[in-house]
Structures are given as C-alpha cells and as structure tokens.
Amino acid sequence: MRLLIDTHILVWIVLNDRRLSEAQRAVLENPENVIVVSPVVAYELTQLQVTKRIPLRESIERLEELVGFETTDLPFECWRMRARLPDIHRDPIDRLLVAQALIGDMSLVTADAKIRRYPVPCI
Predict the structure, then answer these.
(1) Overall domain count for the chain
(2) Per the domain annotation, does 122 fall within a domain?
(3) Which tens digits make up the pLDDT trace of 50-89?
C-alpha cells in the first residue's frame, strides 16, 4: 500500500509522538507499505521550520534518510481535482493532499478530522 502522509504525521514519526494511533503506527512500520511525501508537505514543513512552529531542524533530505520515505511530484491533475472537491476544508495544502491521494491511488495518513470527511481512504 502507498501511504501519503500529512505534515503533522511526518513530524510525529520523527518525534515518536504518542498522538500516532496504533493503526497509523502499524501501517507506517509495515515494510510492505511505501511512505510517500508530497512536495506540498515538504513546503509546509519548511515553512513551519522557518517560523519555528515545530521542533524539527533537520532538512527534508535528512528526514528522508531517517524515516525512509520516498518523495513524489505533484501531478498537474491535482489542481483540477482540488477544484472539484467538496468545500469541507479551506486549507489549500490539505485539499491538494486529498487530491493527490485520490489521483495517486494512495491512502492518506492523517489525524485531521476535516480531511477524513473527504471520499479518500484515510488511516
């Protein structure tokens, strides 16, 4: 299974945060699954680091080594899909993640209750 992870999930993985659910830990630790990070997550993570809103200082490249995720491009079709999504979540990053998960046939790993209201597989 391909797992597209939300920004907070990446932070929680690195910090071994207890807010990761048992189900999330299980799929993330399963070696048969592929953890995927979107460019929009890399962007958001960098912004959070610049504004010192998260305690991580490692670069996205270093986090890639530590966590073992793969990065992916953001297909242009995501912009069209994002525009067709129901108006549940106003956060443009989260809407793009939902669109990318749908287009890429991935499950989205998130704790965001608003994202879970979209017709996308979530863990």
Answers:
(1) 1
(2) no
(3) 999 999 999 999 999 999 999 999 999 999 999 999 989 8
